[in-house]
Amino acid sequence: MSKEQAGSLAWPRRDYWALIAAAIAMGLIVYREAWLPGTVLFTSDDNIGHVAMRQRWLPEGFWRLWDDSILAGQPGFLLINSTNLLLWLLPVGLFHKVIHAFDLAVGTIGFGLFLRARGVRLVPALLGALTAFWLGSTFFLTYAGHIGKFGVVMFAGLAVWLIEEAIRRRSAAWGALAGAACGGMFLEQADLAVFFSIVLGPYALFAAAREFGRSWVLWARTLVPIGIVALLTAGRAIWVATSFYALDGEGSEARTPEEVWDYCTQWSWPPEETIEWIAPGFFGWRSGETAGPYWGRLGRSKEWDTTRQGFMNFKLETLYLGSIPVAFACLGVWLGLQRGHPRRLETIFWLVAVAVTFVLGCGKFTPVYRLFFELPGMSSIRAPVKFMQVTQFAIGVLAAFGLDALLASQAADSRRARRFAFAAAGVAALLLLIGLGMVSSTATSAQRFAQAGWGQFGGVIAENRAWSVLHAGALLAVAAGLCLALSRRSSGRLAWAAVAVVAVDQLIISRHYVKTVPAEGFISRNAVVDLLAERLGSQRVFIAGQDPAYSHWLNILFPYCGIATYNAAQMRMPEDYREYFQAVGNRPDVLWPSFAIGYLLGPAQVWPELESNPSFRGKFSLEYAFNVFPQGGGFRVAAGTEQNRGRHIVARHVAPAPRFALLSGWEALDKRRTLDRMASREYTPLERALVPETVRLPESTGSGISGSVEILRFETGRAELRVASESGGVLRFSEKYTPYWRATINGEPADVFRCDHIFVGVWVPAGIHAVTLEHYPPRLTLHAQAVGFALAALGAVFAARSSRLRRDEA
Length: 810
Hints:
The protein has 29 helices and 20 strands. The protein has a 5-stranded mixed sheet with strand order 5-6-9-7-8, with helices on both faces. Strands 13-14-20-16-17 form a 5-stranded antiparallel sheet, with no helix packed on it. The chain has a 4-stranded antiparallel sheet with strand order 10-15-19-18, with no helix packed on it. A hairpin with a 2-residue loop joins strand 16 and strand 17. Helix 7 (122-133) packs parallel to helix 22, helix 10 packs antiparallel against helix 11 and helix 16 (344-361) packs antiparallel against helix 18 (387-407). The longest helix has 31 residues, at 458-488. The chain is globular, with a radius of gyration of 30 Å. The chain starts with a helix and ends with a helix.
């Protein structure tokens, strides 16, 4: 479609407000339960506890990039992006309620404006936006959390619009804004941003070729600002993804290429599950859901089929789009591919985008992904199924094209649309017949699933499959009817009916993925939290046991309340951590002092075990005995009594190893000998610091902790200390070593080195000294990002001025 054709269908002002109102209304309605007072939106990852913990790191975390929440910490992820800026500005409870709706609404508006720029009417644009943002994995990931993915799709919606505007207006200013939106995707989540870039980058070239031909000046005027600002803005995110985490590694260098391939492609989309696009719940709603457990093979470990080790499967969202959007997308392809159609080239582009991203999303199930995997940097990206969000984005464009073509009332398109409607009606009838057959054979299917290992859930799975096919057939019949009616008479009301049915369908399915829990018991403080918050100080708490309350506290309540734990939760184990634990094993007498464990929380039977163990007898005091009861979405705590003795305890280490210890003895060893020493039964932590043989220190004459260390200020990634000793020693910081730790003694730089393989060490001479430790990654990319933001802001000023002048001239 030419620029003149697109411009001839400019929306009236009320349509812009209708788009904005629709985006806001969807957010308010589908997340309606989260807005109620005293409720919390439930998400698996990025739950409100982790979000609260992240908020406490701001704004310092923007330049320190450190996460000290588990074990001895690890490199962090706090980039200056839309999500973290909103988190910094809003109360955590409000942020967690609005962030998903905000991202989807803003993305919807950007996507709708893109379709408007391509000559699409309001109602088809709304259908396209519903398809791209409020269905499929893009929306139904709400239960899983993954806030970064929501940020990526928001910027993708803005980016495609801004790219279109920059090219249509031949504007460097709009190009700068488009570049900032592209860079914004990477700041939210780099791997998914790469996937979207595979489509958005070629689209910029496609649109430039459509508008500019061989005018290289115009190509440079628009595309160069897009590229420069995108690289400047995204540079820090790309560096973090490719270099920063690589310095810790995730053990990839210790794995064979096939092990890396299996690890990175475990979450590949099984092609047979594509029926889920139109049949909701056919393969279950999600893993662990009693109303419909997921029974497909997404997330299955390679060894599962032979050894039954690893994951059988794992999925928390659905890729459901619905029969109506899929039908109109197919109609858009059918009509758009006709010779002479004004959108023929665009249809081909978006159809190719659907095909390419779908095939890549299938990952290990197609040979094509191996070629993509071998490209530089791509072998570190996990879960090819993320490509399906890009597929969904492209399907949204095609669905809008399909409905818009019907509203255009062109005779040739109307005839073809009628033939398409009859074909869709035939498929709908077939689906309804299949569904009825499945209903009649539910008992047999239930028995088959029960024998396959699903037991009592066999009946639920069989029923869900049958009704999902009936659901698909019924909505496809509606789509066929709408298509036939619109092909005979272009009617805005009928078009609105299509959008309304899709929206209602979304609300029906969303109840499986938008869940809330009462705040009471879920994030409310209790006696255990109050005790630890008051007395823990710089120590960590170790949780012994697998009680459901412990899991909830470890993953949600303790992070929400700022309680530092030792236990590893949702962590990909870096190689040096892995080596350390392989050497030390499960030895509390080594691990607890090494990681500065000050308190122990666990079942009551832990106490007699402590008292009977010679290593711990007399070293712990019983602080609190309590019972736990379910409450709301969490648990409440009640003190133990003589009638109802506490089944859980909090025990305090009487003389715990400090988070910062000055050791008067040290020994320089290579990596292998260090690990061997720690693996020996004679090894005693904090007796002698084990440092790399490349570190040059004075001769060691003592052993154990000496001198004194006073903590003046301690926060994530930074500590200010006053250290006093008569003979000097190695200051051991119970935090994980990376090359980016920096130290100063009395304001002068000091060397930082590994201590005990994974911890931080600094040589401090005799005397009284002010010591500062800070995680200080290079900030060049941070400065580049600031330049990118500045160019984008400058572009916004010039773009606004240009638009104002054009309105005045008009």
